[in-house]
Structure formats: structure tokens, C-alpha cells
Design brief:
By secondary structure, the protein is of the alpha/beta class. Helices cover 36% and strands 24% of the residues. The strands form 4 sheets. It has an 8-stranded antiparallel sheet, covered by helices on one side. Strands 5-6-7-8-12-13-14 form a 7-stranded antiparallel sheet. The longest helix is centred in the last third of the chain and has 19 residues, at 552-570. The N and C termini lie close together (11 Å). It binds fructose -6-phosphate.
Length: 588
């Protein structure tokens, strides 16, 4: 949710910051901007639209110090004027987060003669810095932060300082160094190409960074050192003709993610985790969006494995209405990014209430890992497409292993076998395209299933709607007759997931109810008997590999990820950057 990059070094800043912003575009892509500092003057370009829109202006931007931003609009529409950086006299600022009291501060500053150009909350930061600056940069930053409420990661340029200031309060900032200079950024991919080492700024840190020095102040005044660790240069395959989007590439990494998660799990799962879970009076799973949908599956798995009461709650609800927990409860925060503000906040509240906090996350240096008592890694690698795919699969793998403690060797073998099926399935074009064609010609698409298939239905619906913009809903098949049947007609498609033999007869009833009302049906099943019976009667039927029911979500979810992807492409959408969305939702 907004990405910031800052650089001070020996090279031209504009190009370095531009490449960093390209890597952070998954965090927001409605507008972008860069300011460089050269001989005491600012050179700024900011445009609505994608980062690419800045490229033609870089040649005119001199200086080897600068800051940049890619935006996901909160306050003020996506426009050139609202794009960051925001400047006021000697200061230029980029901001990730929300300044909650910006309106009151702005009124006060306007009364003191300041003129605001944008509708953003962020612009007040530049004006406050200008107001408080008397030659001492850190003092001005401290005073500014003291006036603000909300959350922020800031990168600041001051015309009097050949470097930049980075500030972390509630939104993530990493600092990095390489042969050619220092960097600050919202996330590591922004600097991975140029930096050798990085450290994560702690809450409240203010860093003063030039090409030759880096000073960090923990509370604005106390100088501290933070530990730098090597930047892992992740090997990611480029996009190519056979894989034109990250979404497809990441779906094709599902199998690798299952295998990698199985490999890392033994190291992470020690330290009394099994005993905690076994003795827990309650296990509470919290997450948002896809992570919450993975938590729904986790609830079924953990319910079958442990005695305590297990519930899955949406983090944005739990933070205002937290479930009761005790010191014997285990809270599991599920988050690909580990940064999602609602999840972090809910997890924090439940931990404060005494629960033991486990983070299931794909991002080892994220906010959630810093507050968790235990971190279980989802080894999906960097997920660039805004829609979560391989991270969901990795979360499921992690929950299977958690549910099989203390001796998970058998489940691990099962998972590795499933990974092989998942790998083959990822190459499918024919079946996914067939169902995608039905989706794209439908007014609405419902995904239904029973038991574990209902959880996959919920996730499949989220995936389809976010990347194709087609209205969609997903829920238990039995609920169809309690209202939604009223919406069924020949322009509506229902995708029925049937992977559990014990529930198949009842799910087939739902198919009959839809067909009797002239609705279109696509069946996705691991069961040959169901496929044979329905294939000639429905608009499409896809026979998936025959994996056991408790593992079928790996193949059914992947099949429907492919359907969502192909529907988006048929509908002419960009599946990697759906409109209005961004990865890492760091605002509440
Ligand atoms: C959907 C999607 C979102 C995220 C949600 C939580 O494809 O990506 O629904 O799952 O914003 O994000 P994390 O897992 O980073 O906490």
C-alpha cells in the first residue's frame, strides 16, 4: 500500500529510484513520482498512472540523492498533483500510511499562511517540517512526528542536507547499503539489485542517511545500531511468451511452494509448538481476504487434530470485537505480507490479552514476525501479482503440517505427492479456458461446494472477482436454496466443486436445482463417478487428479486460480494489477 524508495550514493539517483519503484509497484500503482536533490535544488516529476509514465523525464533529473513513491490513493484521487513527493520550500516528502489528524493540522497551517496544493493527508508533513525547521533537521522531524497521529513511513529530502531521512512509525521501512550507496525502501525487492545488506528499522526509528554515513536514532535522539544482514538475491524467472503474467507464473509455483514449505517446517515447528496446540483451550485464526480463506481450511484441519475450540475470524472484525482468549489460547495470524494492518492489530490485541501468538507468513522480516512468539514460514518466495495464489497454497501446506504434529512425516509424504499432481495440473489450458469462457460470458458466477469444498469456493470467488471484475460469490452448496437460487438464470454460471465422495450426492442435488432453473453449470471434481455422471449434462466438467478429499483443496484451488487468470485475460484485464487494489494493505 504505497511504496517508498530513497537513495544517497555515487550514481544518478533518478534511474536507481525508478528501478526500485518498478519493483514496488505491486504496493500501489495509481500514480508515482520522484524528487532528486542536486546542488541545493529539487528536480521533481510526478504523474498519475503507472511508474512507467516517469521514464521519459529521468534524463532531466540530476543528482545522486533522491526519494520516490508509487501510490495507492487514500486521501485525494489519483492525479498528478496528489502524487508524491510533496514539497514545501526546503522539504520534499514521500509517505506510506495515513495521517489521521491531517485535517486539523492543515487548518492550523493554512491560518499560518501555508498554501496546500493537494488533497492528500501527506502534504501536511512537508509543511510541518518547513514550519519547525531552524537548521536542525532531526529536531524538525521529531517535532513533526510529535504533531501527527496515524501511521507512516517517510522519506524526506531537505535542501540543506546531501542525503535523506527515513522514518518508521507503523509502516515498514528497510534500510540497505551497497557498493554505490545507501537506500531506504518499503520492501527488499526495491533494493535487491543494488544492495548487499539490509536492516529493518524498528518502530519509532529515524535514520539520517548520506552517501557516507547512516545514523539511526531510536527515539529521535538516542543513537542506536541495527543489525545488517545479507540481501538474499532471489532467483525469479522472468516473464516470457509462455508465461506473460506473474499471476500465471506464481500459480505454476504452487508445487514448489508446497515442497519448500515442507522442507522448512521441521526447523520452525520445534520449541513446544505441539504442546501449546495440544493444551490450548482455544485456537483462534485471524487473517484478511485470501489469508482468511486459508484460515477457514485451517479451522477444519486443526479442529480434527486438537481438543481446543478452534475459530477463524476476520481480522478487521476481530480488532474491534476480539474473541475471548486466555494465556492458554493460541492465536494464529495468517498473512502473506505480514504487514496487513488489520491482521497485525488484531494479533497484537489478542497477544496483549495473554494468548500465544503464532505467525504463518511468507515474509520473514515483516511486522507480524516481530510481535509473534513463533513464526511458521510459508515458503512461496516473493509474490508479485496482487492476487494471492502460491502463498495461499503454502499456507494450506503449513496448516496440514501443523495439524499433523508431532509426527508429520506421513502427511509430509502425502503433501509431496500432491505437489506432483499440482505441478502437472498447472500446465492445463483446455479445461481452465473452457470454464473461463463460460465465466466471461456470464452476468455473475457462483462458486459452491460442501465441507472443505465450500472454503475453496469462497477463495475461488474472491480470485475471480478481483482479477476479472465479474460479480461473484462463493459459499456452501446447501445455502443455494435459501435465497441465491432467485438469481439463477441462463446468464449466470455456477461452478460446483465436488471433491468429497461422502458429500457428493448432496452437491449433485444443487447441480440439479440449478439446471432445472436453466442456470449454467461447470463441475470441478476429483471424483471420476461424478464426472462421468454429469459431464454430458453440464456446460463444462473438469476431472482433476484423484487426490484424497482432505488434500483436494490443493488441486481444486489451483484449478480455479487458473480459471480466474484465464477469465481476466479473456476479459482484457491486467491480472497482476487489478484496479483499485494493491498488495500489503498497511492501512486500516
Ligand atoms: C486476494 C488478496 C488479499 C490478501 C489480503 C491479506 O487475492 O491477495 O485478499 O489476501 O489483503 O493480505 P496478507 O495475506 O498479506 O495479510
Amino acid at each position: 500500500m504505497c511504496g517508498i524508495v530513497a537513495y544517497a550514493g555515487d550514481e544518478r539517483a533518478a534511474e536507481i529510484i525508478y528501478s526500485g519503484l518498478e519493483k514496488l509497484e505491486y504496493r500501489g500503482y495509481d500514480s508515482a513520482g520522484i524528487t532528486t536533490l542536486c546542488d541545493g535544488s529539487f528536480y521533481t516529476v510526478k504523474r498519475s498512472g503507472r511508474v512507467l509514465g516517469l521514464s521519459q523525464y529521468l534524463g532531466n533529473m540530476c543528482g545522486s540523492t533522491g526519494i520516490g513513491h508509487t501510490r495507492w490513493a487514500t486521501h485525494g484521487e489519483a492525479s498528478d498533483i496528489n502524487a508524491h513527493p510533496h514539497c514545501c520550500n526546503r522539504f520534499a516528502v514521500v509517505h506510506n500510511g495515513i495521517i489521521e489528524n491531517y485535517s486539523a493540522v492543515k487548518v492550523e497551517l493554512v491560518a499560518r499562511g501555508h498554501t496546500f496544493l493537494s488533497q492528500t493527508d501527506s502534504e501536511v508533513v512537508a509543511h510541518l517540517l518547513d514550519e519547525y525547521y531552524d537548521g536542525n533537521l532531526i529536531a524538525a522531524v521529531n517535532k513533526t512526528c510529535a504533531r501527527l497521529t496515524g501511521c507512516w513511513a517517510l522519506a524526506i529530502l531537505c535542501k540543506d542536507y546531501e542525503g535523506f531521512v527515513a522514518v518508521r512509525r507503523g509502516s515498514p521501512v528497510i534500510m540497505a547499503r551497497g557498493a554505490d550507496g545507501y537506500f531506504a525502501a518499503s520492501d527488499i525487492p526495491a533494493v535487491a539489485a543494488c544492495a548487499e545488506e539490509y536492516c529493518v528499522l524498528e518502530e519509532g526509528d529515524i535514520a539520517l542517511i548520506s552517501r557516507s554515513e547512516c545514523k539511526i536514532f531510536s527515539d529521535g535522539t538516542t543513537s542506536v545500531s541495527r543489525t545488517f544482514v545479507p540481501v538474499e538475491k532471489e532467483q525469479t524467472d522472468g516473464l516470457g511468451e509462455d508465461c506473460p503474467h506473474y499471476m500465471l507464473r506464481e500459480i505454476r509455483s504452487n508445487a514448489r511452494t508446497i515442497r519448500a514449505t515442507c522442507e522448512k517446517f521441521p526447523l520452525a515447528a520445534g520449541g513446544g509448538l505441539y504442546e501449546r496446540l495440544r493444551r490450548a483451550d482455544k485456537i483462534v485464526l485471524v487473517g484478511c481476504g485470501t489469508a482468511y480463506n486459508a484460515a477457514l481450511s485451517a479451522k477444519r484441519l486443526l479442529c480434527g487434530a486438537y481438543d481446543g475450540f478452534v475459530e477463524a475470524v476476520i481480522a478487521s472484525e476481530a480488532r474491534y470485537n476480539p474473541p475471548a482468549v486466555t494465556k492458554n489460547s493460541v492465536v494464529i495470524a495468517v498473512s502473506q505480507s505480514g504487514e496487513t494492518a488489520d491482521t497485525v492489530r488484531a494479533a497484537g490485541i489478542l497477544k496483549e490479552a495473554g494468548a500465544y501468538l503464532v505467525a504463518v507468513t511468507n515474509t520473514g522480516y515483516s511486522v507480524i514476525t516481530r510481535i509473534a512468539d513463533k513464526v511458521l514460514p510459508v515458503c512461496a518466495g516473493v509474490e508479485i501479482c496482487v492476487a494471492a495464489t502460491k502463498s495461499y497454497t503454502g499456507q494450506l501446506a503449513c496448516f496440514h503440517l501443523m495439524a499433523s504434529l508431532p509426527d508429520y512425516s506421513c502427511r509430509r509424504r502425502e503433501l509431496l505427492r500432491v505437489a506432483d499432481e499440482v505441478e502437472k495440473l498447472a500446465c492445463d489450458e483446455l479445461n481452465s479456458l473452457r470454464i473461463a469462457q463460460l465465466c466471461v460470458s456470464s452476468r455473475a458466477v457462483f462458486f459452491i461446494g460442501r465441507g472443505g469444498d465450500a472454503d475453496v469456493a469462497t477463495e475461488a470467488s474472491l480470485k475471480l472477482k478481483e482479477v476479472s471484475y465479474i460479480f461473484s460469490d462463493g459459499y456452501p452448496a446447501g445455502e443455494l436454496k435459501h435465497g441465491t437460487l432467485a438469481l439463477i438464470d441462463e446468464d449466470v454460471l455456477s461452478v460446483v466443486i465436488i471433491c468429497d465422495q461422502s458429500l457428493a450426492e448432496k452437491s449433485k442435488n444443487a447441480v440439479e436445482q440449478i439446471l432445472s432453473r436453466r442456470g449454467k453449470v461447470a463441475v470441478v471434481t476429483t471424483l471420476k463417478s461424478v464426472y462421468d455422471e454429469l459431464e454430458s449434462r453440464v456446460s463444462a466438467a473438469w476431472l482433476l487428479p484423484p487426490v484424497p478429499a482432505h488434500l483436494s483443496h490443493f488441486v481444486s484451488a489451483e484449478a480455479l486460480q487458473l480459471v480466474a487468470y484465464r477469465t481476466a485475460v479473456l476479459a482484457g484485464r491486467d491480472p497482476d494489477k487489478p484496479r483499485n487494489l494493491a498488495k500489503s494493505v498497511t492501512v486500516e
